[in-house]
Structures
1.
Amino acid sequence: MSVTYFQQTPAQHLHRHRLPIPAWLIHFGVFGVFVVSVIDASVIPLPLPGSTDLLVLLLAARHSAPWLLVIAAVSGSILGGYLTWSAGKKGGEAMLQRYVPKRFLTPLSGWVKRRGVVSICAAAILPPPIPLLPFLLTAGALGIQRRHFLWSFGVARTVRYSFIAWLGATYGRRVLRLWSRYLAGWSDVILWVFIGLLVMAILFGIWKYRHDQRASSKAGGPLPAPVS
């Protein structure tokens, strides 16, 4: 038996000790990364900060082409970020007051005015707890050009998700082995709880957007641009 064990390839050995990622998530992982990354860069709150990072990290450990995950994460994030930037551009000061805490609004606006695209790159490349949404809305409201915004945001996100995918492909299997050892039997529960929270967050974001639309309409103010 020991001879057979040592003759196994790493892939066969990993298959024998099933890692805690359901098969359907592996097969549909690229599309899932795209959807989550769009939401992650939008005004819809996600139940777990850095959800796209975690998903890319886990899937890169089992995916045969991690670069596809990077493309999906970057393209989805650019789409979500552009929609948020557009909402800030069209909503202006009212949008910032609605989504940015008052104690952060003045220093954040000043920093974005002084640093411009550098502030966008910093927010896009740094991990949580650095918040992304306030920077994207402020960039739109303060008139950072679309071309400059997309270029800086896209480059920063490419660097970030490429690094995460490399980490997942290089060290992810060890992390998943530890997960299997200490959370055996709970991986499906954790996954479905996260999906449930994600659906609730999307529904809450849609409700909040419609509620803000009705409030702005009654007040006679400008309507924010749709972001989902």
2.
Amino acid sequence: MNNEQELKELVKQKYSEIANQERSQNLSSCCGATTSCCGDDVYNIMADDYTQLEGYNPDADLGLGCGIPTSFAKIKEGDAVLDLGSGAGNDAFVARKAVGEKGKVLGVDFSEAMLQKARANAEKLGLNNVEFRQGDIEKLPLTANSVDVVLSNCVLNLVPNKHKVFSEILRVLKPGGHFSISDIVLEGNIPEKWKQVAELYSGCISGAIQKKAYLDIIEEAGFTNITLQKEKKIILPDDILSNYLSPEEISEYKNRNISIKSITVYAEKPSKDDRNCCEPGSKCC
């Protein structure tokens, strides 16, 4: 399965199913993969605890994240914030608390089921400066230089062409704007078999790339002041691994020094950008 469009359709299908699952089922699998792996025990494998944050709405928390980028994003009152892969709105609602009445938060997601859930949550909360828009984060439905801060939580690893995403983030950020993104990366070579498992792809892992390659893409896109704000190792229990690997393969995996990590990375768009990035469809950097 190497066609980018096929991979995107796979992720869209899986995350539409996830939108209608219980949060406990999402937490018990890898980034919400629809296969529940852990029997009666719930492993909080990827997600961090949002419950103490201002603006937190439990109805919007599906347990799909792998960090808390809003805690590191340096959001100010009045900012325009963009949340990529906004899901049911968890990060968007926390960000809205930070921007206040004078700011604006836009969430972009390509799953209609997720958008419906997010919009229903926003309506219940009575928020008029939070919007959820359908779109592909490789071709964002926004004008250039229009947002102060970009957020994303455990989403970019699912996108086949990460170069396009970071190019789009650079385009829509205002000069001097910045992003804070939580994502899954690898250190060491993941078994080829994992890359062929559909459920694991939609569960964040086989779509992830090497940490150095990830950071290199950010630098190549033109960002500056690239900073790792948080890093943690993700431990996959044997009962999850056994859904995809034989006992011999599990042993090999553990002996190959493969590290799956959640990182939260920050970077800035230069205040002066001489490359004249422009609108989608035109020649751009």
3.
Amino acid sequence: MLLEGKNAVVYGGAGPVGRAVARAFAREGARVFLAGRTLATLDEVAQEIADAGGAAETAQVDALDEPAVDAHADGVAGEAGGIDVSFNAIGHGDVHGLPLLELPFEDFARPITTAMRAQFLTTRAAARHMTRQGSGVIMAITATTARLSIPNVGGTGVTFDAIESLCRQWACELGRYGVRVVWLQTTGLPEAIADTVQPAYGTGSGDGMTKAELIAWLRRSTMLDRLASLAEVGNMAAFIASDQAGAVTGAAANLTCGQAPSR
């Protein structure tokens, strides 16, 4: 197994991405520590993992609460003997469907400030332990919104761009301690898209799209004519977190199915 004997923390462990990543980590032998704001849903994921023969523990942690994040990381490291993997999959409170001309600043800025605070705090908390042990992997998830010009997505593109920039800085500062920092980059994830899609998402037309229409629109921009699945995100996360990917840091793992914006 790729992660046998590893301790992995997953923030936002009850969300679609966090759940998929946590299950993949556990399947590959990691002891998974699920963190999030709603304990009941975290416990559901932990039970799924246990039913599949894995090991998972839960804790109510707000990733924006600095003392809580630090205390949780210290507790995990103290109990398990260290932290080998930290994956941040929390939601950012994005608002889609309005042009920037009509978008309140608070709605634009919320995902940026949320992501930056959560990514910084969770990374720092884990890195303090990883640097002492001389190894570790810190991971985030972004999307190609970070490098494309897509209308009516509010602060989402800036948010993902900021996450990637922050990850690069952490990578260059932590590399000498043996700590790697990698982010998974996707297009859209069909299983994580809400059934009711915000009006005008990505089209600039002012018309709403159904979930099926949005998925078809995203698929047309990919070379494989499909989108990555949550299972594929989990599989890639497990591989990147493993020693098999030991030379990869400061970079994206591309799960965009070959997105080609000019198509």
4.
Amino acid sequence: MATLQGAGAHRIGMGRIRRALSLRWVVWVIAGLFFLNLFGVIAVVVANSFATHWFGTWLPAGWTFKYYAEAWQNYQLSGILVVTLEVAFAAVVVSLLIGTPAAYVLARRDFPGKRLMMLAFLLPIMVPPITYGIPLATLLYKLHLGGTLTGVLIANLVPPVPFVILVMTPFIEQIDPRIEAAARMCGAKTWQVFARVLAPLLVPGLLAAGLLVLIQTVALFELSFLVSGPGSQTLVVALYYAVFASGIRPAQMISAMAVIYMLTTLVVLVATLRYVSPTQMVGRVR
């Protein structure tokens, strides 16, 4: 009897192992197909950006850099890149300055309507930007801010500020309030507590939130598109106009702009990750 029970348990254990291995293989196959498809799409765009012409063959008939030069000159990408970086870094600084104090209040104070306020902060992140982007753009144009760099920056602050609040609130909650109380008992004023006690502890969270806001702002299209003008277009808006504006443009030029946009985002991400590692920041506060 004991032998039969042992054999049954062995079969059950082997069955579980086989199911686990099968599930693991399914996950690897799905992940492999996803990355293969992603690599294929990127490879086609990159190859097309260097192609002299490409019709009905596996590889282009020739290779050239001229479409990058034409895209850079025709669309004045140097100025567009400057605008993109100005908007992105300004959005990071302003959203952190606004979002961090708000997150501190939400983390340290209880008041009526707190849950409702947290829900309200989720709306700009969960709701498609176009739904509130049109009324926002109408208001900015009435205030004569539409088509200006200031208007683009204001529009790009709508999602990042709630995002910073939602990221920083649990981060601040992890910091023991007794640290602040001890500093106050030693005679520190409010600004000294924040500057000398909280600020060093908040740096990892600020860097993580700033990194995510930076990447989000560079890629934000709808709000920038609705309020940008000829001198305040970001790179993603310029890419949209290159694809859908009237006129005939070589597909290679559009691919070149797409590669430039992809490289800009990649460079910003790699440069910030050189100094910021979000996966390590969570562990620093524990």
